[in-house]
Amino acid sequence: MVAFVKFLPILVQIYAVYGDYYTPSEEVGEELKRYDPSTDSRYPFELGLGRYYQGDIMLVPPEGRNKDGRVSVPDSLTSYIWPNGTVPYEIAGNFTPSELRTIQNAMRMFRRYTCVRFIPKTANDPLFVSIVNNNTGCYSYIGRQQNNMYNLINLQTPQCLMAVGTPVHEMMHALGFYHEFVRPDRDDWITINRSALLPELQTDEIYDNNFRKLRFEPMTFGLRIEYGSFQVN
Ligand SMILES: [Zn+2]
Questions:
Q1: 184 is in an annotated binding site
Q2: Which of 32, 56, 109, 130 could form a disulfide with 139 if both were Cys (CB 3.0 to 4.6 A apart)?
Q3: Which domains, and CATH codes, for the chain?
Q4: Could you report the per-residue pLDDT of 157-185, keeping only the tens digit for each?
């Protein structure tokens, strides 16, 4: 978990540079209701592009940040890390038994493949993630926030829980991960094809706000990880 520290300075950069990717959008929710995975090549968590940072990351709004652009309260960036890789959580949405099983299966994947543990919150856990299903798409905030208002994973149902991959993906953001496609070495491996975006998203502003490379050393914990898959060599 120490390795997460390397990600953290990036948080400050993003909050300082971008300012309007923090409002839950019912338009995203409406679009997601019309989403048909049999004809749409996108993942459900990609539908927020243009409204949510990188498509499905929620940033803390200005009133939650300090004047210098940082998020409020934390003096030490290590506060963004969940201690001991343990993430207390509560289920605060209205999920069906089947959807709850999908959430549990996602947590089980972390338990099976990583040191991360999602555990039901207790009275001794002041900070915990709430998992909800508002009709505003699939998204999460990044890392452990000092205000539980921002320790939130939204999984609109049924679309965000049609497969285990989406809850796993959003839980990764809650742990502190951004997307592989903003890795500083991504140009060595992939090309960003702007023409594949929806026409209204093919602007410099969208590109700069969502596809600009982050400035930190790539870190894959000794694993070979490819965007869109979890492949271990
Ligand atoms: Zn994502």
A1: no
A2: 56
A3: 26-60+74-177 (3.40.390.10)
A4: 999 999 999 999 999 999 988 888 888 88
Give the residue among 187, 159, 127 at the shortest CA–CA distance from 56: 159
Determine the Cα–Cα distance for residues 144 and 150; give it in Å rounded to an integer: 8
36 marked ligand binding residue: no
C-alpha 45 – ligand 1 centre gap (Å): 6
- Ligand 1 centroid – CA 224 distance (Å): 18
User: Is the preceding omega at residue 158 within 30 degrees of 0, hence cis?
Assistant: yes
From the list 46, 170, 180, 217, the catalytic residue is: 170
The size of the chain, in residues, is 233
Contact 156, 177 (CB under 8 A): no
**Full-model pTM:** 0.80
